[in-house]
Structures are given as structure tokens and as C-alpha cells.
Design goal:
The chain is α/β, with parallel strands linked by helices. The protein has 11 helices and 8 strands. Helix 2 packs parallel to helix 3 and helix 10 crosses helix 11. It binds pyridoxine-5'-phosphate.
Length: 251
């Protein structure tokens, strides 16, 4: 089975920094540490209200990282202009509501084709790898394919937050979506709400190539340090994949 990449989302290092203003803790320092702990990429969400990551963080991350940066962004003209200037390796298009605490649900790729098409095309023309953050749903996969996005990220939040009695059915939806998406020729990523306790069944889905994980890793870092929290997640992913001890060159 192909090696599963881990993208570490460092937004909530910035959340803690912003609680006091000032410079500490620095999300760029966290990103560099994450890379040395085995992250394959760094994810950062520049929200329209700048509640965590700032424009300056994106500029500094672009300059400092030697692993790919995945910029999560709302489908707006402002964010598209920023992405075209920063030229991250990848851009993940997410829905954004000001009042939400975190990204609730996937983007409606099916219902917003016309608005999304020009943004996906502009990013793609700049050689930014576009992914659509969608619910694990065939209609949304078809719509992402029609938009010309090469990648989809399946929203795992419903599975992660469900009561135990509903989890198996929700996992099955992710499995089916991953298999269907791969048949369409899409690269499959997944993320949201993943923890040590719920990551393995998702990591074991063979079509999934990358997981993006943030909040839990940053929270766990309070207790065991960021490097250790990432290493443990990495090893759980490798165990699920049946590739304990796989090296980065297995990508
Ligand atoms: N993927 C996407 C598209 C997200 O918006 C988020 C949250 O910012 C994540 C992954 C990571 O989710 P979590 O912080 O719950 O691990």
C-alpha cells in the first residue's frame, strides 16, 4: 500500500499566540519542528477574519519551509489573490462562515460550480495543486472532478464526532467515497477531527494518500510536546497502513 502522508495543521499554535497578541508561540517555529518530527507537509488556514494564521505567517511559512505548504482558503477573490502571490504547493478550498468555530461541513462543489470554476482554474494555471474539501458524497466528488480539481479532501468530522453507534456507517461513507474518487482519477486526502483514538480506520483506507491533522496534535503538544505528538500520530498511521517503520522515500 502507498505510504500515507501527514500534513500538520499549525493554525492553533497561532490561536494561542493571538490570545495574548505578540509573537509567542510562533506557528512558523512549530512548522519547522513538525517537519523535523516527520510531517510531510504543513497546512495553514488563512481565514477571512484572520482569527489564527495571519498574512505575515503565510509569507514567513513560504520562506521557511522545505516541505510543501497547503494553504486552506475560502473561495474568494481576496484569498485567490493571496494564494497566487504566495504560490503554496497546494490550496485547499474550504467553506467559511464567520460565526463557525471551525470548518463545519464540506464545500458545496456541486451547487457552486460557476463561482468555483474560475478560482480553481486560476490556481491550477499557477501550478498550485487544488483540492476541494468536501463531504464524502458521490455528487460532491463528481462536481470536484467537473471543476478540474486534481485532489479532494474528504471531511472526516462527521465520523470523528459521531457517537460510537453511528461511527461504522460514517466510516463506510468515507471508504466508499475514497474508492469512487480514485476511480474518477482524483487524489484522495482526508481530515478534520482526527485523534489517536479515531485515526487508524481512516488511515487504513488504501485510496487515501494524505491526512491533514491539527487541533488534536497541538492540544496533545501541551502534555507531551509537539514533536512527540506528531511522532505518535505518524506511527499510528504507519501501523494502520501495515507499514511500520516505512521511510519517507517510500512515498
Ligand atoms: N482539513 C481541513 C480542510 C480543515 O479545515 C481542517 C481544520 O482547519 C483540518 C483538515 C484539520 O482539522 P483538525 O484541526 O480538526 O485536525
Amino acid at each position: 500500500m502507498s505510504r500515507l502522508r501527514l500534513g500538520v495543521n499549525i493554525d492553533h499554535v497561532a490561536t494561542v499566540r493571538n490570545a495574548r497578541g505578540g509573537d509567542n508561540p510562533d506557528p512558523v517555529r512549530a512548522a519547522i519542528l513538525a517537519a523535523s518530527a516527520g510531517a510531510d507537509g504543513i497546512t495553514a488556514h488563512l481565514r477571512e477574519d484572520r482569527r489564527h494564521i495571519s498574512d505575515d505567517d503565510i509569507a514567513r511559512l513560504s520562506g521557511a519551509l522545505n516541505i510543501p505548504l497547503n494553504l486552506e482558503m475560502a473561495a474568494t477573490d481576496e484569498m485567490t489573490a493571496i494564494a497566487l502571490k504566495a504560490r503554496p504547493h497546494a490550496a485547499c478550498i474550504v467553506p467559511e462562515k464567520r460565526e463557525e468555530r471551525t470548518t463545519e461541513g464540506g464545500i458545496d462543489a456541486a451547487g457552486q460550480h460557476n463561482r468555483l470554476k474560475s478560482i480553481v482554474s486560476a490556481l491550477g494555471a499557477a501550478r498550485i495543486r487544488v483540492s476541494m474539501f468536501i463531504e464524502p458524497d458521490k455528487r460532491q466528488l463528481d462536481a470536484s472532478k467537473a471543476l478540474g480539481a486534481p485532489v479532494v479532501e474528504l471531511h472526516t468530522g462527521a465520523y470523528a464526532n459521531a457517537p460510537a453507534s453511528e461511527r461504522a456507517a460514517l466510516l463506510e461513507k468515507i471508504r466508499e467515497a475514497a474508492a469512487y474518487g480514485e476511480k474518477l482519477g482524483l487524489e484522495i486526502h482526508a481530515g478534520h477531527g482526527l485523534t489517536y483514538d479515531n485515526v487508524k480506520p481512516v488511515a487504513a483506507i488504501p485510496q487515501i494518500r494524505e491526512l491533514n491533522i491539527g487541533h488534536f496534535l497541538v492540544g496533545e503538544a501541551i502534555f507531551i510536546g509537539l514533536e512527540a505528538s506528531i511522532r505518535r500520530m505518524r506511527s499510528l498511521m504507519d501501523e494502520a497502513r501495515g507499514s511500520v517503520g516505512a521511510s519517507r522515500s517510500d512515498k
